[in-house]
Specification:
- By secondary structure, the chain is α+β, with helices and mostly antiparallel strands.
- The chain has two domains: about 1-85, no CATH class; about 85-130, no CATH class.
- The protein has two helices and seven strands; from the N terminus they run E-E-E-E-H-E-E-E-H.
- It has helices at about 55-85, 115-130, and strands spanning about 5, 10-15, 25, 35, 90-95, 100-110, 115.
- A three-stranded antiparallel beta sheet has the order 5-6-7. A two-stranded antiparallel ribbon has the order 1-2.
- The longest helix has about 30 residues, at about 55-85.
Amino acid sequence: MVVKSCGYCKEMVDLSAGPHIHDPKKCKKCGELLPADAFAPWPSSADGRRHVCSQCVADESATARVHRVVEKDKQFRDDKEKLKEHRYRWVRRVVQPGPDPVLRWVLLDPQGHEVTKEQALRDIEIAESPEPDDYPIY
């Protein structure tokens, strides 16, 4: 006998007797009363369905995706500014010469040496980190 509290109606139900189905079911996010099949399967739930409708889950995923893209763009722009501020520059190099040459972008440090973006950002972080005034005496 597997007894569990139903998150929807708050009753204790015996899951060994089968799923404790609510149809129609109210979405915990949007509050709409929808048929049970509008909720994705969720094995750990007492009724075998999520408590949030599939549309709300999709909307939440889309919003999260937009936030990730915006954050990634902001990080890209911040990194670009930081590199420019420290005199790093992007140039195009010929990888494969010929009638249709293959080009790629490379990052050059202030001395003109090719570096990775990650290495450049690490070097900038080290250069910007404050040096301790005095070292501990052991």
